[in-house]
Design brief:
heterodimer; A: 112 residues; alpha+beta; four-stranded mixed beta sheet; B: alpha/beta; 6 helices; 23% helix
Chain lengths: 112, 258
């Protein structure tokens, strides 16, 4: 998906919704143009209770891959990547790596 | 059991997810190609245990071969596996750790570990759980104290494997600020979106209302090839740079017919 989403931003899409983040290439592409909004995986019941199906396109691709149109009613989301190069997933990963390095390469951890 | 999966795929309905690994052809009923995975053990009685486990967590599984002298590095490997997985397996996770046996046996142990009750952990499991939570990956990889709800370990001999699964927990009531129709703590966004998105900052909580479209890889490829003029309101994504855009969800929903 990461390699495929650039053209959507070029075309003027202002927000991508997903989970888990998108990687540095998309962070660059979003700058000054659009944002990445994160939905909480596993909360499908909440999402389903706040959306109405309004159409389907490319149905020949099958249920999983078709384009579905929905009308949302106040779906709660977190801004994961903003239009200024800030990426919450990158920050969390960098911090986790620091914690990991500290524990396992300074003689504090069980590896030593 | 395969028939049960086929029936459920139609009746519930469930999204058909089983595809050939090379041709990407979908079997359309969630069976075939070794799915559902069924393991039979000899014994006196018939007991059926079902482990529902998303492929998103399955994809984050990992096997590591350690030398006998490296047994103290097990916490390192467990933490590293969670670090590599990050937010992708939809944390908080329950980690199943299989230690020892054959290559495939270790994988089976890791799966079996996920069937153990998770309300208690022994000292080693608690240590692993604390180390994983120290990473601060948090729910959905957004940062936080809880990355693993539990770590369960099953031990045999030699190799070693980790697998993680999506956890489920009951949600009792709605947290403050997330009331239906409320503005939560941040902006209430409505599609079509414009320059208001530029003022958002990573970490802001927002709500979104209005028309959105889903698109997974195949749909992206189709739109790149043919454009999206056939999708009303979507505009032609391949040809109209700069137009005011509707959001796109990177997800494939499961839909009840009608």
């Amino acid at each position: 998906m990461n390699n495929l989403s650039g053209f959507l931003i070029d075309a003027g899409v202002r927000a991508l919704i997903g989970k888990g983040g998108m990687g540095p290439q998309i962070v660059e592409q979003l700058k000054g143009r659009a944002v990445y909004l994160a939905f909480t995986g596993g909360c499908a019941a909440l999402a389903a209770s706040r959306m109405k199906l309004s159409g389907v396109f490319f149905e020949d691709l099958g249920m999983a891959e078709a384009v579905w149109a929905f009308d949302l009613d106040c779906i709660p989301l977190v801004v994961g990547i903003d239009a200024h190069g800030n990426d919450i997933f990158r920050d969390v990963t960098m911090n986790s790596e620091k914690v990991f390095q500290k524990r396992f390469s300074t003689g504090k951890g069980p590896v030593s | 059991m395969a028939k049960g999966v086929r029936d459920a795929t139609q009746a519930v309905p469930l999204r058909p997810n089983v595809v050939h690994p090379i041709t990407r052809e979908n079997t359309k009923d969630n069976t075939g190609l070794g799915m559902p995975a069924i393991h039979v053990r000899p014994g006196e009685r018939l007991t059926v245990t079902v482990l529902p486990k998303g492929a998103g967590a399955e994809n984050m599984s990992r096997i590591v071969m350690l030398l006998p002298s490296q047994k103290d590095q097990i916490p390192h490997v467990v933490a590293e596996t969670m670090l590599l997985a990050g937010g992708k397996p939809c944390p908080p996770v329950i980690l199943g750790v299989g230690i020892g046996g054959t290559f495939d046996g270790a994988a089976a142990l890791a799966k079996e570990a996920l069937l153990l009750p998770v309300d208690t952990m022994d000292e080693f499991e608690q240590e692993l759980c604390d180390i994983v939570n120290e990473l601060g990956i948090g729910p959905m990889g957004l940062g936080g104290k809880t990355t693993a709800l539990a770590v369960k370990v099953k031990t045999a001999r030699m190799p070693y494997r980790i697998t993680s699964r999506r956890s489920q927990c009951p949600v009792l009531g709605q947290p403050a600020g997330m009331r239906r129709g409320g503005t939560m703590t941040g902006m209430a966004l409505c599609t079509p979106l414009g320059d208001e998105v530029l003022s958002l900052r990573a970490g802001d909580r927002v709500t979104l209302s209005g028309r959105v479209y889903t698109a997974r890889d195949e749909a992206h490829l189709r739109m790149m090839e043919e454009g999206s003029r056939s999708i009303p309101g979507c505009g032609d994504l391949s040809l109209r740079p700069g137009h005011t855009g509707r959001p796109v969800i990177a997800a494939g929903p499961t839909l009840r017919p009608g």
